[in-house]
């Protein structure tokens, strides 16, 4: 992936994408903080120029100035906070889209080892925390301006007090950063536990029917109770760390302000500053805890954001699908029900070639699948079959050799365009909660008739068993269907997708012999004239192919029609008949 997917990269992208709102919010927030700092100074001036020496005109003038400053700080806070909140929400929204897009990417791999609940937690709470850093940054910059403004105004009133603030405020900020480190670790642990609890809950809800069937409800409840308690304990530890950090920062801030007030009082007693300056100094001393506390809060938010950014980065940086290639396949996706190339006069399209392919247990596979051919492949090692399917689906690129579609290597083809032309329907294809028809037509071209594919896969029999027929719901992951019925629906979906090249892996392992024979004939009929590869050991499916290729020991050892291989090849006979 080209973008920086480290934790820092996630934070940098979240802030950079909203820099305009952050800049506007920071500017308006700075105006608010400057106004806050000016208020005690103006009150001190009013005391000196209109109270100590009574002057009604000067009092009215300075009261108008004070009102204008109040209006500036009020509107600065309102619109600055609005810009900061918008930046936070927009950044969180974009991060959620990034995470969801990564999780939903075909063969993305981001979901590997992560339960659905954990991914939901990353896409919601973690994204919110990282996005909230924009608001924290907006308020933090404004708070820095407030501290600097307060220090400058104090320097004008008294150099010793100003220097004390200039030295003490950065020291407090550095100390707050150090105190936030334990909070960062506790926050990360809290999010991990919360995500795990969400994942366990999602798994239990998804499998509630199975749990009830096994009478394992009590064990499931005990498991979730233990996970929930661990999440609660992690949350309590994080809250304690946050409370400790906040309490220590408030204590240190109070001690710092008391020191400022003490020094200011001694200066007044010595005659170094007047009554108005004293009022200003005391007012500024009371003002300073606000921006300093905001800086401490910003440190805590940064700690939480860094922990959440690391979790988001783990998802975004998960080993994903292969990328690269910009060429379009020479074959366009075939229209529904195309006639064979021989009858239309069109040149052949959909030729698939493996040239000296080597990956995993596969070693030097040379194989050409002619356009429009109905080919069977028998692989004696299930691991080799899985590797072959991964290479054909381009979930990985082979270590050696290449795979070509109509003479163009897979690596030169745009992945999305390749998948629009070639579909690998794997054995464990998942169904979703919806109607039977929705599942079959999920990848079908718009306006295509799904019934030929449903008839070829014997899904019409499945529809007859459902209330509502094809409009009947099949439950999450097809939970209302049997294993064989789920296989037939998945096969119908692959056939209805109507790709130029279709690779199917073991589509009938849970189907009875009579239905399997019907499906073999149906696949042959609905895929007439288009390239079809069946990776299977089913004699019924193999008997309906043009030829069969045997891969044994990672290499092609025989190829011939099914009947000839059954008669003449012992390894093949053993693989498909036992």
Brief write-up:
It is a multi-pass membrane protein. By secondary structure, the protein is an alpha/beta fold.
Provide structural commentary.
With 578 residues, the chain is an alpha/beta fold. The protein has 20 helices and ten strands. The strands form two sheets. The protein has a six-stranded mixed β-sheet. Strands 2-1-4-5 form a four-stranded antiparallel β-sheet, with helices on one face. Strand 7, helix 17 and strand 8 form a beta-alpha-beta unit. Helix 4 runs antiparallel to helix 5. The protein is elongated, with a radius of gyration of 35 Å. The model is unreliable at 332-348 (pLDDT under 50).
What key attributes describe this structure?
4-stranded antiparallel beta sheet; elongated; alpha/beta; 578 residues; 6-stranded mixed beta sheet
**Poorly predicted ranges (pLDDT <50, ≥5 residues)?**
332-348
Strand runs, count = 10
Question: How large is the share of residues in beta strands?
Answer: 5-15%
The general outline is elongated
What is the strand arrangement across the widest sheet?
Answer: 6-7-8-3-9-10
What is the mean pLDDT? 81
Radius of gyration: 35 Å
Main sheet: strands, sense, barrel: 6 strands, mixed
Figure out the total of helices.
20
Secondary structure category: alpha/beta
What is the percent of helical residues? 55-70%
Helix/strand order: HHHHHHHHHHEEEHEEHEHHHHEHEHEEHH
């Amino acid at each position: 992936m080209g973008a920086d997917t480290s934790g820092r990269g996630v934070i940098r992208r979240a802030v950079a994408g909203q820099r305009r709102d952050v800049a506007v919010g920071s500017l308006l927030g700075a105006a608010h903080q400057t106004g806050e700092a000016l208020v005690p100074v103006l009150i001190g001036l009013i005391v000196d120029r209109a109270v100590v020496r009574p002057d009604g005109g000067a009092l009215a003038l300075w009261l108008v100035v004070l009102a204008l400053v109040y209006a500036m700080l009020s509107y600065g806070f309102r619109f600055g906070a609005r810009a900061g909140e918008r930046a936070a929400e927009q950044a969180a929204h974009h991060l959620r889209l990034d995470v969801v897009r990564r999780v939903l990417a075909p063969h993305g791999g981001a979901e590997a080892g992560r339960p659905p609940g954990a991914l939901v937690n990353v896409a919601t709470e973690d994204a919110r925390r990282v996005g909230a850093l924009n608001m924290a940054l907006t308020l933090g910059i404004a708070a820095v301006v407030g501290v600097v403004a307060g220090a400058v105004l104090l320097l004008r009133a008294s150099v010793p007090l100003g220097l004390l603030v200039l030295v003490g405020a950065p020291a407090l900020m550095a100390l707050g950063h150090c105190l936030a480190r334990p909070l960062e670790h506790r926050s990360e642990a809290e999010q991990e536990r919360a995500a795990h609890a969400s994942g366990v809950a999602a798994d239990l809800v998804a499998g509630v029917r199975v749990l009830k069937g096994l009478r394992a409800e009590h064990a499931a409840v005990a498991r979730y109770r233990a996970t929930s308690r661990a999440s609660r304990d992690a949350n309590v530890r994080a809250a304690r760390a946050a409370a400790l950090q906040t309490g220590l920062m408030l204590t240190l801030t109070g001690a710092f302000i008391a020191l400022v007030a003490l020094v200011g009082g001694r200066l007044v007693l010595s005659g170094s500053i007047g009554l108005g300056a004293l009022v200003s100094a005391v007012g500024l001393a009371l003002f300073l805890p606000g921006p300093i506390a905001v800086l401490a809060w910003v440190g805590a938010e940064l700690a939480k954001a860094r922990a959440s950014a690391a979790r988001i980065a783990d998802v975004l940086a998960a080993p994903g699908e292969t990328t690269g290639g910009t060429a379009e396949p020479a074959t366009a996706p075939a229209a529904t029900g195309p006639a064979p190339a021989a009858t239309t006069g069109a040149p052949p399209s959909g030729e698939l070639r493996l040239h000296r392919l080597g990956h995993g247990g596969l070693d030097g596979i040379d194989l050409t699948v002619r356009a429009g051919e109905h080919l069977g492949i028998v692989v004696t090692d299930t691991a080799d079959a899985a590797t072959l399917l991964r290479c054909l689906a381009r979930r990985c690129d082979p270590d050696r050799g290449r795979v070509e579609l109509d003479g163009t290597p897979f690596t030169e083809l745009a992945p999305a365009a390749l998948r629009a032309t070639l579909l690998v329907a794997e054995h464990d294809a998942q169904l979703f909660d919806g109607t039977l028809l929705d599942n079959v037509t999920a990848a079908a071209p718009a306006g295509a008739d799904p019934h030929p594919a449903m008839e070829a896969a014997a899904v019409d029999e499945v529809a007859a068993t459902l209330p509502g027929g094809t409009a009947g719901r099949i439950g999450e992951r097809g939970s209302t269907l049997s294993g064989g019925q789920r296989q037939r629906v998945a096969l119908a979906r692959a056939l209805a997708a109507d790709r130029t090249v279709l690779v199917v892996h073991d589509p009938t392992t849970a189907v009875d012999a009579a239905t399997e024979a019907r499906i073999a004939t149906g696949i042959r009929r609905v895929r007439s004239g288009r390239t079809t590869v069946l990776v299977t050991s089913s004699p019924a499916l193999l008997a309906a192919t043009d030829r069969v290729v045997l891969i044994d020991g990672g290499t092609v050892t025989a190829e011939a029609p099914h009947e000839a291989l059954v008669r003449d090849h012992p390894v093949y006979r053993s693989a498909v008949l036992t």
